[in-house]
Amino acid sequence: MSVSGESRGRSQQMRAKAQELNEAAERSTDPEERRRLKEKARRLQEQSEQEGQMREGMDPM
Predict the structure, then answer these.
(1) pLDDT one-digit tens code per residue, 9-61
(2) C-alpha separations of 29 from 26, 33, 37 in Å
(3) ∠29-38-8 over CA atoms, to 5°?
(4) pTM tops 0.90
(5) Is the Cα torsion angle 18, 23, 28, 34 positive or negative in sign?
(6) How many whole angstroms separate alpha carbon 25 and alpha carbon 43?
(7) Angle at 46 between CA 9 and CA 31, to 5 degrees
């Protein structure tokens, strides 16, 4: 697998994990736990987006 393919796979995994965390937050009845899960999901989503932007800048295609 190429480096860009590995990076793309990692970004997809981070987005999937962020979605799982958001879903867990929605199910949580504890407001503090819900906030913590949503914050963690937000950070993962941002990191995934940053990696995607870096990849686009380096990808010659």
Answers:
(1) 888 999 999 999 999 999 999 999 999 999 999 999 999 998 888 777 765 55
(2) 8, 8, 12
(3) 140
(4) no
(5) positive
(6) 14
(7) 115
